[in-house]
Design goal:
single chain, about 325 residues, mainly alpha, Rossmann fold, Tyrosyl-Transfer RNA Synthetase, 2 domains, three-stranded parallel β-sheet, two-stranded parallel ribbon, 13 helices, 5 strands, about 5% strand, globular
Length: about 325
């Protein structure tokens, strides 16, 4: 706990283009809770290389993502926004935690199985030990809470197990993190397949709305969204496409599903889809404008990168030195 506040850690990978789902489900909520916690928000570029990346493209996407964090409203003076690869403690702690992680635990990770199936030509050790690096990310900053989706809950459970296992051997070293349970972020589904999450890796570009999509593209994608033949704007599991669009509209406007049903009562899907598209445009326009302005200010972004990396390194080293001493590494001569 720092400055009397609990510590919160989270991060996003510097691959693909962030979607509306990433913004409404995570980034927007980060901004809301920023004042309540001591926060560390990482661009987790080390995680990205479990899959082969174009080096220049990865550097570009990492910078774009860091800039997007700020454009979305995260103040780098109050939130530590940094590149994972700029803080060596992530890798150093991951190695130590590897030595406390059992093969059987990693074999049970469903995400490894899923990713191995998608990248059968590159099933590398990093892909296998990915959850240990994730545990290091969290434990390095003694995070009390971690915002996680259902797909990451298994990794957080491993993190908790490793923290408890290490503490049982060496005493009270790590804070055992809890999942952040706030107001649930909107779970945004694909516009083309409402049974799966909107994803930045979706092969169908019409399934996802990207944060940098222009208004015409957003409206077009909404018009093409999969619906049904019921011809009624109703919040029902039996109408997954319409339910997803209502969730998006609610997240963008602050309205409840009942209010949306009343607003579009008696209106066709065409009017509803146009309304959803316009609501999305109104939410993304300020973010896009901020991003454009920040992208022009190279000196400012460079300053944020440097100062926040130093801040992250300072706090991470507190934990790392303690861990190194506990496991028996020789003390460093200063």
């Amino acid at each position: 706990m720092l400055d009397g506040k609990k510590t919160l850690f989270s991060g996003m990978q510097a691959t693909g283009n962030l979607t509306l789902g990433n913004y409404l489900g995570a980034l927007k909520n980060w901004v809301k809770i920023a004042d309540d916690y001591q926060t560390f928000y990482s661009v987790v570029d080390m995680h990205s290389i479990t899959v082969r990346q174009d080096p220049a493209e990865l550097r570009k996407r990492a910078r774009n993502l860091l800039t997007l964090y700020i454009a979305a409203g995260l103040d780098p003076e109050k939130n530590c926004i940094y590149y994972q690869s700029h803080v060596s403690g992530h890798a150093e702690l991951a190695w130590i935690l590897n030595c406390f992680t059992y093969m059987g635990e990693l074999n049970r990770m469903t995400q490894f199985k899923d990713k191995a199936a998608k990248h059968a030509d590159n099933i590398n050790a990093g892909l296998f030990t990915y959850p240990v690096l994730m545990a290091a990310d969290i434990l390095l900053f003694q995070a009390d809470v971690v915002p996680v989706g259902i797909d990451q809950m298994q990794h957080l459970e491993l993190t908790r197990d490793l923290a408890v296992r290490f503490n049982n051997v060496y005493g009270d070293v790590f804070t055992v993190p809890e999942p952040y349970i706030g107001k649930s972020g909107a779970k945004i589904m694909s516009l083309q397949d409402p049974m799966k999450k909107m994803s930045k890796s979706d092969e169908n570009p019409n399934g996802s709305i990207y944060l940098m999509d222009d208004p015409d593209t957003i409206i077009r994608k909404c018009k093409r969204a999969v619906t049904d033949s019921v011809a009624c704007v109703r919040y029902s599991d039996e109408q997954p496409g319409i339910k997803n669009l209502i969730d998006i509209y609610c997240a963008c406007t602050g309205k409840t599903p009942a209010e949306v049903e009343a607003e579009f009562d008696g209106k066709g899907y065409g009017d509803f889809k146009m309304g959803v598209g316009e609501a999305i445009v109104s939410v993304l326009k300020p973010l896009q404008d901020n991003y454009a302005d920040l992208s022009k200010n190279k000196d400012y972004i460079d300053k944020v990168i440097k100062e926040n990396a130093e801040k992250a390194a300072y706090f991470s080293n507190k934990t790392l030195r303690k861990v190194q001493k506990k496991v028996g590494f020789p003390e460093r001569i200063r």
